[in-house]
Amino acid sequence: MHAGDVNVSSMKNDRGPNAGAGYRRQMPERGVRGTLPGKRVDNGRRRRPAIPMAAVRRGAATRGTMMKSELRKARSRERVARIQALTADDPALAGRLNRILTHARNVRVTEYHLTNACNIRCKGCWFFEYGHDTATREVKDLATLDSFLVSETKARRVNAALVIGGEPTLFPDRLRLFVKHIRYVTVSSNGLRRLPWEGFEDVTVMLTLFGGGQLDDELRAIKPSGRQFTGLFETVLDNYRDDPRANFVYALTEDGIGHIEETVRRIRDNGNRLSFNFYSKYGSADPTAQEHQEALLAEALRVKALYPDTVLSHPYYIEAMITGRTHWGASFGYDVCPSISIDHPDHAERLENGNPVLPFFNTWAADLKTVKFCCTSGHCDGCRDSQAVNSWLMVSMDQFLDSREMLETWIGIAEGYWNQFVWTPFNPSAVTHAALKAERQGAQGEDGHGADTTASGRPALGGVMPPQTVRPTMHVPGTTH
User: Fold this and answer.
1) CA-CA distance, 333 to 190, in Å (whole number)?
2) CA distances to 219, 280, 298, 309 from 261, in Å
3) Helix 404-418 vs helix 91-104: crossing angle, to nearest 10
4) Using CA atoms, how far apart are residues 392 and 332, in angstroms rounded to an integer?
5) Which domains does the chain have, with CATH numbers?
6) Packing angle, helices 404-418 and 53-87, rounded to 10
């Protein structure tokens, strides 16, 4: 098992087999350690029973929980008041915000390592760099996976899955179980093997890209044997040409500044879109160190301005992702990252520090028993993961409520994030996606699936969700790496 991970199936009650058995009420001696002395009654003749320290601690914990609950309610009331003031005379802005919150609060995500196997060995891949591929033994039995996913949806109410590896497209039979049980499915892929359309029409495919141009081959086009090959980016473009499910996750590096514009243009011409990521040089002393940070940031922002409909990432996010900094003075790191596994025991202090986390979020290893530390490597000092940074900005909405301009910035960040997924109402390819589904599924009438259903018979997810009135809180998934 990888350091920092925990196997929940092996966790035992450590109180002992006879804990609580043969309990006898005892009146402790005055000053006995572990008790508070009882108070003398008015007549001075008797003492009240001493109060066990455990009960005192429980009472303090209860009061602490109540205080935190009241504090959260007060913050929520303040948030609502500030939002109402900022949007009072701007119904369009209020509508955009409400649309985001309506969708986000209904998404409850968890990440799953589908397999430890992969058909390439990218330089800078944290999965292999830190031994996640050998830490656990993957479950191959479909019945076991099916039962596990039923439990996830019923017991933990998960309805969104980020499926990573390894390379998930190597095992489409396992992926079909995710589609069967979970409403929103996103697959992180290297793109070398195309995910079939049939049965996966509503699955978002996040396509990894390192550096751009010829640098992508240098960093990613490596067989498990170590043999280098060429043309990986071209293969991925061919596999996902005009595919509305596909979104490139383009990891920028200062070594590839000269490739950024051409790479973005080729993705646009291929009928795809992209989000910017940060290439951490895992294996180096400081994976996030940059000698030419300002030049990288300037080029990324310039290309975003040139191709605003292709690059989904908001300029504010791009700057935070490259620099790790924000306007309110916080820097990205473990103490603020929301994409941690909430059931991992090492996060007890983090969960109490007041910074938001993603409700329901866990990352499960391929053995379906081990809870991983977080959504990526577990090595926070070298991480600038795109989706974790995005989620951090989105759960930090309170920091963007000082002015209408900053609120609009936050809305833009959130819209850029949700635009990545084909299953959201924000996806700009929704019309194309619906038309493709109608064209390909219209001929399947004899199977009982019309143009407005998926292969599993569920309603299609490409349309706009009905408006709802919601409080301004949200559940935001951290997705691919």
Assistant:
1) 26
2) 19, 20, 12, 14
3) 40
4) 8
5) 91-431 (3.20.20)
6) 100
Tokens of 114: 């589908």
| pTM listed for this prediction | 0.78
Which of 368, 224, 211, 175 has the alpha carbon at shortest distance from 299?
A: 211
Name, in order, each residue with C-beta under 8 angstroms of 408's C-beta and a sequence gap of 6 or more. Answer: 93
Among 251, 405, 411, 399, CA closest to 325: 399
92-139: pLDDT as tens digits: 999 999 999 999 999 999 999 999 989 998 887 866 676 677 778 999
Our measurement of the distance from residue 128's CA atom to the centroid of its chain's CA atoms, rounded to an integer in Å, reads 20
To the nearest 10 degrees (0 to 180), the angle between helices 386-395 and 315-323 is 120
Residue 278 pairs in a beta bridge with 252
355, amino acid identity: N
Give the whole-angstrom CA distance, residue 372 versus residue 6: 7
The tokens describing 355, both together, are 């910074």
Q: How many CB atoms lie within 10 A of CB 402?
A: 13
CB burial readout 77-93, b (16+ within 10 A) else e = eebeebbeebbeeeeeb
Span 251-263, pLDDT tens digits: 999 999 999 999 9
User: Which amino acid type is present at position 450?
Assistant: G
pLDDT (tens digit per residue) in 31-76: 333 333 443 333 444 444 555 665 655 665 566 666 667 877 888 8
- Quick one: tokens of 288? 């996030």
Question: Strand 273-278 vs strand 246-252: parallel, antiparallel, or unpaired?
Answer: parallel
